[in-house]
Amino acid sequence: MDDWIDYYDSTHTIYASKLHRDLHFQLIANDIISYISSPDSVVLDYACGEALSAGKVADACGKLILAEPAPGVRGRLIARFAPNTKVRVRSLDELRQMAEKSVDLAVMNSVAQYMTPLELDVAFAVIKRLLKPGGRLVVGDILRPEVGMGRDVLALLRFARKHGFLRDALIGLVSTALSDYRHLRRRVGLQRYSENAMIAKLAAAGFNASRTDHNIGHNPSRMTFVARPALIVGPRP
């Protein structure tokens, strides 16, 4: 994951335009809000990125924890949300010091593809410790093995046409093809999981999980899962 952290901590060109970037974060925020069950909920956004619309999420919950591994991004988050008393910014390591069973909803969106399977197992273990017994983990934007880059491109172009930045998206695709992102993706690769494989991986981490009908974000070719800590049934007396 370190190579990807360095990439997202740099000046990158993953978004076609400011409009694309802003719409991306607004859409994700709205999707996260749809999973918040109470205005008093404690929400954890694991490896949140720039989280430009996190203020909107914070308005819908009691406390929002933005956990981000990239130090530069984390510094910007601290500066941006310093006036917001409902937002706390943490490193991933700091999550280990948080109280057990203190989080109602954890979201890990568009993160699993950048982690090794072992790194993902470790992240699931940290989140499971933090979740309340009735809490939920939402794992979004999972890449499927049978879906190639062409479907991602098509999803972006449809999103761009709908929101009026199609020209910028076409230019951005050319730029991305020549960028460090494309080279890094070819060299390091992205992790992909079938529906059954992700459910099994979550089960091994102690969760009961199922795939939802709607993926977080604009790409319907990717998958989102909702998981709850599995109940531990003790021996009968």
Mean pLDDT across all amino acids: 90
Report, as a whole number of angstroms, the end-to-end distance: 46 Å
Task: Please compute the radius of gyration using only Cα atoms.
Answer: 18 Å
Low-confidence stretches: none
What is the CATH C level class, in words?
Alpha Beta
CATH superfamily: Vaccinia Virus protein VP39
Record field, number of beta strands: 7
Total separate domains:
1
Principal-axis shape: globular
Structural class by sheet pairing and helices: alpha/beta
CATH architecture designation: 3-Layer(aba) Sandwich
Strand/helix succession: HHEHEHEEHEHHHHEE
Strand content: 15-25%
Number of DSSP helical runs: 9
Q: What is the helix fraction of residues, given as a range?
A: 40-55%
- If strands are numbered along the chain, what order do they take across the biggest sheet? 3-2-1-4-5-7-6
Predict the CATH topology.
Rossmann fold
